[in-house]
Every structure is written in structure tokens, then in C-alpha cells.
Amino acid sequence: MKLVMIGGGGFRTPLVHSALLRDREPGRVTEVALVDVDADRLRTMARILADQAEGVPDAPTVSVHTDVEDALPGADFVFSAIRVAGMEGRATDERIGQSHGVIGQETVGFGGISYALRTLPTVMELARTVKRLAPDAWVINFTNPAGVVTEAMSTVLGERVIGICDSPIGLARRALGTLGVQHGPDVELEYAGLNHLGWLTAVRVDGVDRLPEVLADAGRIESFEEGKLFGAEWIQALGALPNEYLHYYSYRRDVLQADQYAPHTRARYLVEQQDRFWAVAGACEHPYRAWQDSRNEREASYMATNRDSAGMGERDVEDMTSGGYEDVALALMRGIAYDQRARLILNVRNRGALAGLDDDAVVEIPCIVDAAGAHPIPGARVPDFGLGTVTAVKYVERQTIQAALHGDRAAALRALAHHPLVDSVRVARALLEDARSSFPHLSYLS
Asked: Could you say which architecture CATH assigns to the domain 2-164?
């Protein structure tokens, strides 16, 4: 199979490559085409992957391209993982948000909307190009905000675009870890919501829901990251395990205060850290080792201000294990290409599976994957207390898409003003104007 990675010069590319190197099954990916606008990073990334593949027999061949049209022909799968305006754009969103007293995180609230507004025109062009040059390819979207981007791309690609996020499976693995259970074929997860806005509501092991055992034990809850972040009392009050990004909603004042007291924003830290990494990786003999060191440093500082606001301190090593989005992506590809049935939590069109949202709304729920694609499993349920938030945020997502696809400034303003983390129309208007003046990408909003 041929895999094309859009944004292949991005930092997480070696995670995907690691899954490909572990895959020794017949029909595996044998060709990887990296596409990126930054030729220098592409060359360095190719060296990192070559170093990573050292000693692995029959590793996939890797090619690099700065023109997507050169890479797409013959693609079986296309990964989209782009960052329009780069990490500096994320830093700008965080600065603008803080200047107006709102959270500027890149996928939640103002930051997510701003990121989407400058990203959607680019991914829509990508969707049209894929449909023209690789009409039989499946697009697996990692580009944030994943739910919004996947829904917009689905207007061109239909069911052939599927979004992936590792937050739900990471949450589930940590909860299972407290039970001494590993995620496997005997485990079924019930999870429902939108990307970065969902809840784990059941963990069935051999048909028995074990989540009540976790929820009944405060010590067990606070033994893993989400439990420490939200606190056992609140999680027990909810009766479900929230996605870590819901911390921005449940503790917005605390997070904002921690952000304001922090010596630098998350993005500003990443800009400096990544600059150091690329300089070292571009010159050293073993760039993959440099990548591993940088990744460990990056993971250790993940959601640092949220942890500070909760008084959590340093991350535990166990919590730093990723959700394994690269393994989910591999299972998804194999499920489609070889009809290897799998149950995965994905971002897909609802098609009646989740009550309260229409068929075309992209939701994050368990799906069955087979040769025909990803099929949402009917019966997913958002807890009653979350229904209003999910409905409001889906409205925001669709107004954001309306703004980006039609150059509709009023829709962008509606998106910002109706987001639960923006508390004033005046503030929404100021945020929009600051974003428009900061990003040439938003000049289309008239």
C-alpha cells in the first residue's frame, strides 16, 4: 500500500512510521510519501525516519515532496496533519486569547475557531485535489480541530474522510490500567461526544461494565491523569470519565489564571523547544535519538498549566504513554484495505447513531471498521449534563465552517459569541478583529 502524509515534516511523523515498522503482516504499507511546504524539515525528517528504520528489514521506502500533486497519484491512504501558520500561529492565538481574558488553547474556544478559520480553506483545497488525483484513496484526518476539519472535508469526500484523535483511547487505557486490564478484543468502550468534548460512559470487559468499579474508588480515580485533573469528587458526581479537554470547560477560571501566571504559553514553549530540536536533528549523527529526547520533554510538559491549576505537579511516567493514535490509524487502514473488522473510536458522520444531532454532523463515537469504511455504532449516548454543551459547540463548529467556506464574517462572529468559553459579544468581536489583523489567512472574511 502507498501512504501519503500531508504535513509529513511535522513532529509526530515518526510515531506513524514506528507503527509501520512494527507491521509485518502481508499487504502492509510499503511506500510512504512525505509532503510538506518546508523542504529543510522534510530532508531532516527523512533522515530521522531512515535512522529509525536502521536494522528493520523491508522498511517502507520514503520519498519527499513539496508539491502534493506529485505525491498523490496511486495513494491508497492520505494522512492530513497540517498546521497553517505553524506553531507561531498557535502562539498568536494564545496571546490574543489571554489579552481578552479568554482561553486561547488551539482546539478549544477562541483558539480552536481561529485555527479552523485559517485551516479550512487549505484542507478544502486538499480534499478537492485528493478527489481529483486519488479518488479511491481514504483520507485519515489528524489536522486540528479534528472534528471541524473532518466535517468540512466530508462535504467533498463524503464517508472517505475519517478523523482520528488519541484522547479517548488514552483515557480508556489509563482507566483500564487501574483495573489491571489491557485494552484488547475482550474490551468494549462506550464513548460519546465531539472531538475534545466527550465522555467515557462504560468499559465492558467480557461483557461486564467495569467502569463503576473505577468510579466507586476515589483513590483509583486519582491514580491516573484525568482523575487527578478533575478530582475524584467531581468525576463521581458526573458518573462518567471526561475527556481531558473538558478541563477547560469545568475549570475555566482556574486554567485562565494559571495561563496568565505562567512564564510562557504552551505554544511559545513549543516554538523554542522545536527550534532547538530541528537545529540539533539537522546536524547530528543520530537524529532519531534527538527526536526521542525532544518528544519525552514535550510529553512531560503536556497541559502543564491545567496541571498547575489542579495542583498536580509533574506527570507520571504511566500518564505520558500516548493513546496510540498511530496504532489506531494502522488498525483503521487494515480494516478498510483488508476487511479486518475492528471496533475503534473515530470522528465520523453521525448517521443516526448519536441522538440529538443530524446525520451529517461529525461526532466522536465507537465505530465498526470494515472494507466499506467506518460505521458508527447506534446507541451512543452523551450524558444528560453534556447535551447542551455538545449542541452549542456543534452549532459553533458549523458556523465556523460556514464562515470559512463562504467568507462569512457574521458567521465567524456568531461562532465566537456562542462558544461556551467566550462570555461576551463585545469580546467575541474584539477577538475576531485581532485575529483578522494578525493572520493574513483571514483576509477572506469580509
From this structure: 3-Layer(aba) Sandwich (3.40)
- The set of catalytic residues is 166, 245
The DSSP output letter for 320 is: G
Report the alpha-carbon distance of residue 166 to residue 164 in Å, rounded.
7
Using DSSP, state whether 234 is helix, strand or coil: helix
Distance between CA atoms of residues 378 and 106, nearest Å: 31
pLDDT tens digits, 162-185: 999 999 999 999 999 999 999 888
Q: Which three cell numbers stand for residue 306?
A: 491545567
Domain ranges of the chain: 2-164, 168-250, 254-310
What tens digit of pLDDT does each residue of 254-312 get? 999 988 888 778 888 898 999 999 999 999 999 999 999 999 988 877 766 776 677 76
Omega prior to 420 cis, within 30 of 0:
no
Q: CB of 255 within 8 A of CB of 247?
A: yes
366 DSSP β-pair partners: 345
Q: For the chain, what is the radius of gyration of the CA atoms?
A: 21
Q: How far apart are CA 248 and CA 110, in angstroms?
A: 12
Was 165 annotated as part of a binding site?
A: yes
* Amino acid of residue 214: V
From 31, 64, 30, 28, select the one nearest 48 (Cα to Cα).
64
Q: How many residues does the chain have?
A: 446
Annotated binding-site residue? 306: no
On whether 144 is known to bind a ligand per the annotation, the reply is: yes
Comparing CA positions, the residue from 276, 253, 263, 246 lying closest to residue 304 is: 263
Query: Phi/psi of residue 196, each to 5°?
Result: 60, 25
